[in-house]
Every structure is written in C-alpha cells, then in structure tokens.
Design a protein that fits this description.
Jelly Rolls; twelve-stranded antiparallel beta sheet; mainly beta; globular; single chain; eight-stranded antiparallel beta sheet
Length: 789
C-alpha cells in the first residue's frame, strides 16, 4: 500500500466546520448497528448524511448500503426491510412493508474527490404520492428514473421501528456495504424536513455547505452520529443516547477527511489507472502487475508534503515508485507503462534511484522493508521535489534547506505544471497506502498537507460573476423582452436555440447592439434591427427585440422554443478580451489586455462573407490552426498565426485573408487560462468506455471539445444548466445549426466532476484511441469549495 499523510485545517469558506468522518472499507465488512427497544414514527421521518464515494464508482449492479432497517421477514411476498443505497451510481431508496415502493435518482454520483449531501424525506401520510418520498442532493430536489413506485398512503416503513438498523451496510446482508466515507449522519423521527434544516448555500461560493444541526428535534429513535470519538464511532450526540455498536471499524477509521475539508486520495478515475485496485476510501492501492495511480488534487504552486507507505517488502522484482505526474501532459503508453517512464512523471524507486522519462540516477538509499515510509516534499514555488525514507531526507538534503527553498540536493528541479501525487509498481506484489491523517515523519517547515483547506484562495471565488450559462424560452410576443438574472453585465452573449434548427448567434459590446455573427457559417456580420436580436446590454443581462420579423431569427423568436445563452464578462480578472482590429495583409501582431499568454483566441472577419473563424488553441500550438465553423482537423499553416505563439501582450497573425486581409475589419475573442476558472488544453483518447479524466482544478459549467488530429469531426459543446446532473450528454455545436441532441452513453457522454471531466464513452466523437482532442472549459466553482457533482 502507499500511504498519504496529512493534517487538516478549517475551510474558511464554510460557516460551520465538520472535523471528521467515518471511513468504510467494504472489504472489511464494516458497519454500525442498533435495534431500538420500541417503535417510533415509521410513517414520517427524515434522513440526512454527507457522503464521499470510494472505489466502486462505475461498478455494475453493485449495491452499497448507506442505511437500512428491517427484519427480513416476508410480508406480502417481500422481505420486510428499508434500504437507502448507492446502486449503479444512483441513489436508490426502497421500502418493503406489504408492498414494494422503490425510486432511483436520474442523477449519477460518480465524483470521488469531494462530498455529496443526501437528504431523504419520507412521509407516507401525504395524499399526493410524489410527496411521500423526496430525495435531495446538495440541496436540490431529485428527479426519479422512469415511473417511480411510491409507497401507498399510510403504508409504514421499517425505519424508526423496533427493527435492526444498520449504517454502512444493508440491514439484511452485511455484504452490501458502502465503500467511502460518511459524516454527520442524522435521523429525524416523526418530522419531515427539507434540506435547509441540514445545510445552506454559502453566499460567497454558491456551494451547498453544512450547518449546525444540534438544535433539531430528533424524536424517539432519532440520532446524530458525528464519529467524534474514535473509540466509539457510533455514539449518538443528539441527546437521545441512541448509540450504535461498531463492527469491523477501528480507531483509524475516524479520519479528518470531511465535508468542510476534502483530502487528497488516490483517484479511481485516473486516466492512467492501470492494474491497480483501490480500497480503504481510496487510500490503498493494490497492484496486480506493473501499474499506476494518481491523486485527486492537482497543485501549481505552494509547498506540499505527503507520505507513501510501502506495506509489503520487496520480492519478486517489485519496484515501488513514489512521486508526481503532470496531469496536463501525461504521456503513458504500453511502452512507457508507468508514470516515471513518462517525460511528465518524476519518482523515487526502491532501488534508491530517481527516475524520469525512462532514465534514472542514484539519489539515495534503497528501501525494501515492509512498512517503509517514503516522504515526498513538493516545492512548486521553487520547482523542486525531495524524497525521504523513514524521515531521513535523501541525497544529503536537510529539512532546513528544503524549508528555505534551497534546491541543491533536490531530486529534480525546474518543475512546473499541474502536479498530482502518483504511485507505481513494476511487478505486481505491491500494496501502497496513502496516509491521510497521521504522518510517520515530519514535514519541512512551511510544507502543507494536500487538502482543500490548504489550497490557495482562488483568484475568482464565485465564477458566475464572470461567466454563466442561461436558459430561457422564446415568447414571440411582438414586444421587446428584457432578460435579467445573468448575474453581471455581459460583454459577449452567445445564443443558440435548443429546440429548433437556428444558427448560433454571437453578440458583443465592442461591435455593439443589433449585430451578430454566426459561428456555424462563414457569412459576414448581420445588422438587422427588430429581428430578434440584442438591442441593449444591461447590468444583469440584455434586451432582445421582438423577434417578429427578419429572415434569420436567432435569439427569441418561436414561442415555446427553448434557448441557451453563454455569457462572458470582459477583463483581465476573468482572462477575456474582445479585440477589434483592421487587417494589414502582412505578418503583424495585435495587442490584447490580458497580461498573460492566451490559451485560445478566435478571429472572424466582420465585413466579408466566405471568411473562416480561425482558432488558435494552445493544445495544438501556433503552427496549426482550427476553424470554429468546420469539421476540419488542425492543419499546419504559417499563414494564420505566423508559427508564433501569443505572448502576455500580443497575438500574432500571418498573411492569410481569413484573419488579416488588408483593410478588412475583424473581431477577436481572446481567452487566457485563469487557475480555478478557465482552462484550455488537450488530451489523448484511450478508446475505452472509461475514458480519460481531464483534471481542470474546478467544477465545469461549460465545456467545448474537438477532435484535432483527424477530419470530419464536429465541435461539441456542453454545459451544466442543460444537464444539471451526471451524466452530461446534451450537446450543441458551434459549427452546427442543429437542435440540441441528447446523446446516450454509447454516443457521447461525460461526467462533470468537482475537479474536472471524466469521458464516459469509447465513441470517436470524444475518445478514439490515440487521437488528440482539444478543449476549453469554464468553471461553476473552484475545486477548493466544490461539492461533489
């Protein structure tokens, strides 16, 4: 096992702090259980808990019990018990008491890096069947799959009855256990409560956070399990004394990974997770043969320390490796099978060698004794990494010099990028444990544990202040219509009809009102007042004209047609500049105001038809160009960007008339990456239904992707408003005027996560093996404060 060590600090973004959780490793068959001495109210109750998932994400037909109750005795043809489970990544609730009632959420819970809040509100006294079972995730009421099977009125349940109650496993079968973490586990006996009794929306971040529930009325069999006593994890702190006995849970299963401070663990969605089986809340990695795994938290700056514990001794040629990998530039193939063979992975192996890019050099002593602990000190501020064995720094490094930023005795220097912890093994007899709570050694002064509390405050705490998707329905009333609620004064408004075949329309404050460009064509700018276009930009939205005339209605024409607009604010803080310029016909530069190198810019001639939308993208570089309106692959041509990368102050254009015709008028949309807010990059497909994971460092609100290495492939655009829960499958395209397509898993689908995007298809639209894809993404919230998605 590799072990990851950390200490925790309070999360400044919350108003109420939770200091710990209970870790359930389903391989150990752990659970808490209690049988009430008398019945409470089995018709009306509320259950609430915070959940962080473990390694069973994506497992088919795996039932993980969160809480269950019952005696298994057959009543009306069904064994009597209630169960709240994770089943096929959905929340499943069922009650069997004479008749079967069962519901499944549409939402899929497949995010292992952060925490979910789950509330089940049960009241079978209600005359309306939809009010008898209500489930909320992160404060949002859930839609159920297909036709829900609601309980009969006054049917009763097993919860709060004088039956066995079990937490962390099913009441009938202990083998149906949860793998992950539970925190702030609450049962309210006799009252139906909404999620606002247990959490609230943080006014600074917009995220759902816990509140103090000590003042709630818990009822006869109600309880509150905080796991605050490691020797008695089932102690009830509600005041009722309804304590739960603990089975197969140890003191070290009380961990400081909590809803207000999520810790780094091994990531089961790692794109290069090869031959590794994760367990123990994703802190343990067991290698079946040579393989790799990476962590959930990526860092670009700061000083970080963790530990990797090698549980077993070296035998049979095992090659433990502890280190890091750059998640934006990983390049693992079957030839370079584990991360230290990659140009973007750096490690220390048990033969005392440092390794990178299939080369190695002696760095320190060997380690091959069971329970040897490898300390990793990553100094991203000075671009260096150091390794220790059992608290002894290697290569004559000292804790004092590491703390001071002296890099003379570092294993590697010159590091930059977005690094995650990584672990690999060569042979297949290794078990690596990532210790999250207690360090065997001592971190150098100034080095912190990898958890969300210790992450730096993001430059943009609330991304919807600068970018947001906005959904509305057309009305065609014959009068102008003002839209508010965007949340800021937009400078770029990109609209698209979801339910009709209308072109994309882009409006901006530089070109002014009543002018649009269509990204799915090469036409010139259209200026048609009173034809369904923006007539005014406001402080919180914009105004459309009546849309009752004109040949190309775009934004508010058909009554009942659904639309989406994507809205950006201009400025250096969000990394967005709108630049108007006149072409020269000669190689030249154009100034922008971002102060950092752009990750993407798009140029379009305004006054001439037949002109392409030229796209520079950092994923393919300035020697190549893409067209936004086209399915073409990235192509090599110096005529577009003169083979010159943009800088912090200018971007360069070649002689091609598409972007620089002499006397031509142009508009350019220039985007720079902002940590925690926007990202522009590329990934390589693996051809698997479990595709790559793109670690963005934020929960995305908007995602644009294009196959760059092959032709005849569209751009695809997703957002979190059209698909508020996973999986994300409704796509539009900047090069297509088609109505929205609701793809299926076999077509093109993704999961939006608290820290990035997981591709969930083997379709070539998003995941051809070995193909290169470019993407652009904007945030809903930075990872530091994100709920699980």
């Amino acid at each position: 096992m590799t072990m990851f060590g950390s200490q925790w600090l309070a999360n400044a973004g919350s108003t109420y702090e939770i200091g710990q959780s209970i870790r359930f490793n389903d391989d150990d068959t752990p659970y808490l259980q209690r049988t009430p001495g008398s019945s409470g109210n089995d018709h009306t109750w509320t259950f609430s808990c915070w959940l962080k998932r473990g390694s069973d994400i994506g497992s088919s037909n795996t039932q993980e019990g969160i809480i269950g109750a019952g005696n298994g005795v057959e009543v009306g043809g069904h064994a009597r018990y209630d169960a709240l489970n994770i089943y096929n990544d959905q929340i499943q609730f069922g009650t069997w008491n004479g008749s079967l009632a069962e519901v499944y959420t549409v939402a899929l819970l497949r995010d292992p890096a952060a925490w979910y809040h789950i509330v089940v509100r049960y009241d079978d006294t209600q005359s309306t069947d939809t009010n008898r079972i209500r489930i909320y995730i992160n404060g949002v009421s859930q839609t159920f799959v297909s036709t829900p099977n609601y309980p009969d009125q006054n049917q009763g349940s097993s919860f709060n009855g004088a039956f066995l109650h079990r937490i962390g496993a099913n009441a009938v079968s202990t083998s149906r256990g949860i793998d992950g973490y539970l925190s702030e586990i609450v049962m309210i006996d006799g009252t139906s409560l909404g999620p606002g009794s247990f959490g609230e929306t943080n006014s600074d971040t917009g995220q759902w956070v816990p509140i103090d529930v000590s003042d709630l009325t818990y009822g006869t069999n109600g309880f509150r399990l905080k796991g605050q006593d490691s020797s008695a994890l089932g102690d009830d702190t509600s005041g009722n004394g309804n304590d739960f006995a603990s089975t197969n849970l140890a003191a070290n299963d009380q961990v400081s990974d909590s809803p207000t401070n999520s810790h780094c663990t091994w990531n089961p969605l790692t794109p290069w997770l090869v031959n590794m089986v994760l367990s123990n809340g994703n802190t343990a990695a067991t290698c079946s043969e040579r393989g790799n795994v990476g962590g959930t938290i990526a860092v670009t700056s700061g000083k970080w320390y963790w530990e990797t514990k090698m549980v077993n001794a070296n035998s049979g040629g095992s090659r433990h490796r502890a280190g890091i990998i750059d998640v934006d530039n990983y390049a693992l193939t079957t030839e370079s099978f584990y991360f230290s063979y990659s140009a973007y992975g750096w490690s220390f192996s048990e033969d005392g060698k440092k390794e990178n890019n299939n080369t190695n050099a002696t760095y320190g002593n060997t380690f091959n004794t069971a329970n040897d602990v490898i300390g990793v000190a990553l100094d991203m501020d000075n671009g260096a990494i150091y390794f220790s064995i059992n608290d002894t720094w290697q290569n004559s490094a000292t804790a004092a010099e590491i703390a001071a930023g002296t890099t003379t005795n570092a294993a590697f220097t010159g590091l930059s990028g977005r690094m995650v912890p990584a672990y690999g093994d060569f042979s297949g007899n290794a078990v690596g444990l990532f210790a999250e709570d207690v360090w065997a050694g001592t971190a150098p002064s100034g080095f912190k544990a990898l958890n969300t509390a210790n992450l730096p405050s993001p430059a943009i705490e609330y991304p919807p202040d600068y970018f947001t998707p906005y959904i509305y329905t057309g009305d065609n009333t014959g009068t102008s219509r003002a839209f508010t609620g965007v949340g800021f004064a937009p400078n770029l408004v990109w609209t698209k009809a979801r339910g009709a075949t209308y072109s994309n329309a882009l409006f901006d404050t530089v070109r002014g009102v009543e002018k649009y460009l269509s990204s799915d064509g090469t036409g010139a700018e259209i200026n048609q007042p009173s034809s369904g276009y923006i007539t005014a930009f406001g402080s919180d939205g914009y105004t459309f004209s009546d849309g009752s005339s004109g040949t190309n209605p775009r934004a508010n024409y058909n009554a009942g047609t659904t639309y989406v607009s994507w809205n950006w604010a201009e400025g250096s803080t969000p990394g967005f500049d709108i630049v108007s310029y006149t072409g020269t016909g000669a190689n030249r530069t154009v100034a922008h105001n971002l102060g950092v190198k752009p990750g993407m810019f798009i140029v379009k001639q305004r006054g001439a038809s037949g002109s392409n939308w030229g796209v520079y993208h950092s994923g393919v570089g300035a020697t190549k160009s893409l067209f936004l309106q086209s399915t073409e692959a990235a192509f090599d041509s110096a005529e577009y960007f003169n083979d010159t990368e943009p800088t912090a102050s200018v971007f360069t254009l070649g002689t091609n008339a598409q972007g620089n015709a002499d006397g031509g008028t142009y508009i350019a949309y220039v985007f720079a990456p902002v940590e925690g807010f926007s990202k522009f990059g590329s990934y390589i497909g693996n051809g698997s239904s479990s595709g790559p994971m793109v670690n963005l460092g934020f929960q995305p609100a908007w995602y644009l992707v294009k196959l760059a290495s092959a032709a005849n492939q569209s751009w695809y655009l997703f957002d979190d408003q059209r698909d508020p829960f996973n999986f994300v499958r409704r796509y539009l395209g900047p090069n297509r005027n088609n109505a929205e397509v609701a793809g299926i898993a076999a077509d093109i689908s993704h999961d939006f996560l608290s820290n990035g995007i997981k591709i969930r298809t083997d379709n070539g639209l998003a995941n051809t093996d070995g193909a290169e894809y470019v993407y652009a993404a904007f945030a809903k919230t930075p990872f530091k404060t994100a709920n699980a998605r």
